[in-house]
Every structure is written in structure tokens, then in C-alpha cells.
Write a structure and sequence with these properties.
By secondary structure, the chain is α+β, with helices and mostly antiparallel strands. The protein has eight helices and twelve strands.
Length: 271
């Protein structure tokens, strides 16, 4: 096979899947069916090995992980932090409720570790792309959410696919935000190259690639934050299938997380 043939084999597509604005995503809706309808309305269908990336926002809406600010009564702790950081105390209260612990508070930014083990801004509480004075929170179990969507898609199509639930996170060592995987199903989230050889025959000793995060970030290129595209298909990618997959594999152990430990030492929690 010639060079052009090999290049075509490695081609990866990222296909945006808009969902019509008049489709209301609400508590208890069949998200897998809604996604599949949107895929077909877009003139395509699922094929084996597709990776379906779904934004956390629509999953949280379907699972009723939404709160109206008018229904939130802030605690004294939340009020104190809100006054110091210039934030709405009701929003701070939700952040605290979703947090396992506070990692850092500075300049109006609250970094927490969620009950899932994720270290992120505001415990993943978010008010973008949602109507009224409401906020969404991360799914209680994002991996289980991904499995439910995957099971529904595979039952309806007979295709073996993977599902990633994505959210937008900042990074402690670089500017800007990227989409990362907070839930996965059917795909091994890490690709471990340790023990393999590079192109010059040298053994790789430390390289592990966060494949699920890379796929989530690739999907964000067509999703955007305001395009009304909460789903994307990543097609043509070779990946390791894993029926027991969990996005928790992407969370670094605290003993090896330099940035988390430094932050906790500053607030007196490490040691």
C-alpha cells in the first residue's frame, strides 16, 4: 500500500451534532434517543468504533442536576467566602455543597476537589448555556451516565461505540481551558506506552497519554461554547475498548499530584 493509502487509514473526523433549540432537555428524558435522533437529523448514523462525546451540561439537565438560585439558602461559611471574593453567596453555597474540600480561594476563584476526586474551579457548578437564574452541577456518577447513553445507543443501532462525557477545565500550569473527560464508557481512557520503543528504538519509560481527554478536546473544536452543539462524533480513531472503563483512571493520586499538594500545604491541609 502506498503512502497516501496509509495516510487515509489514519484519518480522524470530528463531526458536530447540533440539537435543535426547540428540543427541551429535561429531567428523565431519554438522552440516548435524543442524541441518536440528532445524529440522524444531521444526515449520518453511528458506525462501529465511533466515539460519541457529550457535554456535561445536557447530561446534568437530563439527570435533574440543576438548581434555581432562588431555592438556595447560603450558610454563614458561604456568606463569608462570598464577601471576601465578591461572589454571589448562593453560588458559593452550591460550590461548597459539591466539594469534598476547598483546595484554594484567591482572586474570586474557588478551586475545589469534588466528591468525584476532580480538582476544578467552582466544583464544576456552572451557569452558562442554561436558562433563568439556574446552575448545573456535575452528574453524580459521570461514568454511569456515560454507560447509560452508550447502552441506549448500542441497543438502538447494533453498533459498538464508546461514549465520553466532557466538561471544560482550567489547568494549573497553562493558560486557557480545555475540554476533558469526566465520564467514559467503552474506551480505555489512558494509553500506556511504557515498555514500548520509540522510532529510534529507545524504550519509553514514563509516557502515558490521556486519550479520553484528547478526544474530548478534539470534540470541543467543533462544539464551541455558544454554538448549540452539545454532541460530537469522533470517527476513524483506533482506541482500546474497555467495558470496565472509568474516568477516575485519569485522576492523579494525591501522593503524586505536586500542584494539589502545594495548594493544600498553603492552606494547611497537607502533611
Amino acid at each position: 500500500m502506498g503512502r497516501m493509502g496509509r495516510m487515509r487509514e489514519r484519518r480522524v473526523e470530528v463531526i458536530p451534532i447540533p440539537i435543535a433549540k426547540d428540543v427541551r432537555i429535561s429531567k428523565g428524558c431519554d438522552l440516548a434517543s435524543l442524541i441518536l435522533d440528532a445524529i440522524r437529523d444531521n444526515g449520518t448514523d453511528l458506525v462501529d468504533s465511533d466515539v460519541v462525546v457529550v457535554t456535561q451540561k445536557i447530561v446534568s439537565k437530563a439527570e435533574n442536576r440543576m438548581v434555581h438560585l432562588a431555592d438556595v439558602t447560603p450558610s454563614e461559611h458561604a456568606i463569608r467566602i462570598a464577601m471576601e471574593q465578591g461572589k454571589d453567596p448562593r453560588v458559593v453555597e452550591l460550590i461548597l455543597r459539591e466539594a469534598k474540600r476547598i483546595v484554594a480561594v484567591s482572586g474570586g476563584v474557588i478551586i475545589t476537589q469534588t466528591r468525584h476526586g476532580l480538582v476544578c474551579a467552582n466544583s464544576g457548578v456552572d451557569g452558562s448555556n442554561i436558562e433563568d437564574e439556574s446552575l448545573t452541577m456535575l452528574p453524580i456518577d459521570p461514568d454511569a451516565s456515560a454507560r447509560r447513553i452508550r447502552d441506549g445507543l448500542m441497543r438502538a443501532t447494533g453498533r459498538r461505540v464508546a461514549v465520553i462525557i466532557s466538561d471544560t477545565f482550567g489547568r494549573p500550569f497553562r493558560e486557557g481551558q480545555v475540554n476533558v473527560a469526566v465520564g467514559v464508557a467503552g474506551i480505555k481512557p489512558m494509553m500506556d506506552y511504557r515498555g514500548m520503543r520509540d522510532m529510534y528504538g529507545k524504550e519509553l519509560r514514563v509516557t502515558s497519554i490521556a486519550v479520553a481527554d484528547e478526544i474530548a478536546s478534539a470534540a470541543e473544536l467543533v462544539m464551541g461554547k455558544s454554538k448549540g452543539i452539545p454532541v460530537a462524533i469522533v470517527r476513524g480513531l483506533e482506541y482500546a475498548q474497555d467495558e470496565q472503563a472509568s474516568a477516575r483512571d485519569l485522576i492523579r493520586e494525591e501522593s503524586r499530584d505536586i500542584f494539589l499538594r502545594l495548594a493544600l500545604e498553603r492552606c494547611g491541609e497537607a502533611g
